[in-house]
Structures are given as structure tokens and as C-alpha cells.
Write a structure and sequence with these properties.
Elements (H helix, E strand, L loop, with lengths): L4 H55 L4 H8 L4 H13 L3 H16 L1
Helix pairs in contact: 1-3, 3-4
């Protein structure tokens, strides 16, 4: 049985619509994931800035080694804990010791 040319045109249109829908869904998922990752990265950057600001207010100068360690942190919970220590510690040396301890525990 032969199909009519009209049938072939409609079948192609439906197939193209499905492809377009899949592309739209893929783009939407990609945008949502990108937005989520961007928000998470922005939140980490803000936490890093708050921590460094707190240390600078408390202890004035922050050694480059501490800044480098903080710049490599990607865990929100570590930032929260370090921010508390930045407020509570009586010296930069005490903060550095606690920071190293927290990071070593997280690695283990």
C-alpha cells in the first residue's frame, strides 16, 4: 500500500516537532543546571568574601598562605565553621591551626 505525499509531509512535520520539543527540553534542563551551578558558585564566593572580610577586620593583615587555603575551599559547611572561628579565635595563629584541623578532617 502506497502512502500519499500528504501523509509523508505530516509524518515529517510531527517528527520535526518532536525533535524541536526534545531540543527545547534539553535546553531548559541545561539552563536550569547552569543557573543552579551559578547560584552555588556565587554563594561560595560570598561566603569566601565574608570570611576574608571578618579575618581582615579582626586581625588586619591576612597572610597569603591563609588566603590561598581559603580560596581553594569549596565546601559551604567548612566556610560556616571557619567564619565562626574567625569571630571566636583570639589570634590569627589559633585560627590557622583550627582551619588546618578542619580541612584535614574533611579530607580524611
Amino acid at each position: 500500500m502506497r502512502r500519499s505525499p500528504t501523509y509523508d509531509i505530516f509524518a515529517e512535520m510531527i517528527e520535526n516537532e518532536k525533535k524541536d520539543e526534545w531540543i527545547r527540553e534539553g535546553l531548559q534542563q541545561g539552563l536550569q543546571q547552569g543557573l543552579q551551578q551559578g547560584l552555588q558558585q556565587g554563594q561560595l564566593e560570598a561566603m569566601k568574601k565574608f570570611l576574608l572580610d571578618t579575618l581582615e577586620i579582626r586581625f588586619e593583615r591576612i597572610p597569603d598562605g591563609i588566603i590561598e587555603i581559603i580560596n581553594n575551599i569549596t565546601d559551604e559547611e567548612i566556610f560556616r565553621t571557619l567564619h565562626r572561628y574567625a569571630i571566636k579565635c583570639s589570634s590569627l595563629r589559633e585560627f590557622k591551626t583550627k582551619m588546618k584541623s578542619i580541612i584535614e578532617k574533611k579530607i580524611d
